[in-house]
Amino acid sequence: MSTQPTKTLETFDNPTPGRDYTIRMEIPEFTCLCPKTGQPDFATITIEYVADALCLELKALKLYMWSFRNEGAFHEAVTNQILDDLIKACRPNFMRIEAEFNVRGGIYTTIVAEHRNKDWEAPEVVALP
After folding, report:
1. Residue 51 buriedness (CB in 10 A; 0-12 / 13-18 / 19+)
2. Catalytic residue at 34?
3. How does DSSP assign 42-92, residue by residue?
4. How far apart are CA 119 and CA 48, in angstroms?
5. Is pLDDT at 1 greater than 80 in this prediction?
6. How close are the terminal C-alpha atoms of the chain, in Å?
7. pLDDT above 80: residue 37
């Protein structure tokens, strides 16, 4: 596997496809460039998903995230691009991307984008005593 940034995402078979479970990943060192100023934007990207048949491979995900480092993108656009690319790669039952961008001009920005497979029904939340 390459150690250079790439847009290629790899997957592996879900080891427990008959069970709904949450996979949560936090990427605290995401960077891209402001399309207006060219200055770096820093964010923590949190990915939460319920896999169907495939799971995302972590090293490939790291190299994918690295590929944005020198690209100009508005926060809203890059968050939705990541969601679209990850959905295309692993076709999850549910996926949520939360991008918490560091302060710029005194404003923090958080973008949340979601996808839900129309044929999937979320499990009922269990409330414990």
Report:
1. buried
2. yes
3. EEEEEEEEE-SSEEE-HHHHHHHHHTTTT-B--HHHHHHHHHHHHHHHH--
4. 19
5. no
6. 47
7. yes
88 burial via Cβ count (<10 Å: 0-12, 13-18, 19+): exposed
E strand or H helix at 112, and its extent?
Answer: strand 107-116
Q: Between the CA of residue 21 and those of 33, 39, 55, 95, 100, what are the distances in Å?
A: 34, 38, 11, 12, 24
Position 105 scores a pLDDT of 84
Q: Where residue 89 falls among pLDDT bands split at 50, 70, 90?
A: very high
∠ CA 96-55-43, rounded to 5°: 40
Catalytic residue of the set 13, 20, 32, 41: 41
Q: Give catalytic status of residue 41 as yes or no.
A: yes
- Which residue is catalytic, options 34, 52, 90, 119? 34
Mean pLDDT of 76-102: 98
Question: Residue 44, class by beta-carbon neighbours within 10 Å (0-12 exposed, 13-18 middle, 19+ buried)?
Answer: middle
